[in-house]
Structures are given as C-alpha cells and as structure tokens.
Design brief:
Layout (H helix, E strand, L loop, with lengths): L1 H5 L7 H22 L9 H24 L15 H12 L25
C-alpha cells in the first residue's frame, strides 16, 4: 500500500484509481464537515492538514494512471489549467483503459502474472 500511495513508478488500472479518488473525497468531506466549513468560508486546520496529506498520494496515483495509458507522468501538470485541466485529468484517468500488455512504464496491472515471472 505504501508503494501504491507514495511511489511514482509503475502503473495502476482504473479500479484502484477510483477507489483511491473516492477515499480521498470522503476524507475531504469529513475534514470540511469537522471544521464546520461552508462554501466561501475559510479553511479550518483539519481541512488544511487533510489536503496537505493527500497531495503526494494524489499525484502518485495520477502519475501511475498516466503511465497505464502510456503517457508521461508530466501530464499531471494539466491539473494546473483551471477547471478544464482537472476535468480532463479525471476523465482521462478515470475512463480511458490502460494499454494492453507491457508498456515503457511496466507490465499491465490487469495481467495476473508479470511477464518476467511466467514460466516458459
């Protein structure tokens, strides 16, 4: 799990991506609820800590999804384009199937057994 959330190497498919996105969304909503934040209010300390804690794992899972569709992890920077970039990233990472078989970023995460461990 540590490698999944903190490493920028390898690939993940859409299923773990969506689980992690939803888990982070629940974390955000919970933190904002605890802080009593409404729309347009200042962010409380718990919300700020949760956002800071989720930055690295969020980047890591996005980079791995970009890798799964055989694109550079630098595509994560598209999120800096207001509104459009985040939507683009969510749609592409959440709905585009990964490349079949191995690509330059590793084996297909959908394969049951990696190629280098298969017996001839």
């Amino acid at each position: 799990m540590v490698k999944l959330l903190f490493s920028f190497e390898g690939r993940i498919n859409r299923e773990p991506y969506w689980y992690l996105v939803l888990a982070m969304l629940v974390g955000y909503i919970t933190a904002f609820s605890i802080d009593g934040n409404g729309l347009g209010e200042e962010m409380g300390p718990i919300s700020m800590l949760v956002i800071l804690a989720f930055i690295w794992p969020s980047l890591a899972i996005q980079v791995k999804r970009w890798h799964d569709i055989d694109k550079s992890g630098w595509w994560v920077l598209i999120n800096f384009i207001p509104i459009v970039g985040s939507i683009w990233s969510l749609v592409e990472n959440g709905f585009t199937p990964g490349t079949d078989g191995p690509n330059r970023y590793g084996d297909n995460p959908m394969d049951e057994e990696p190629r280098d461990k298969q017996t001839p």
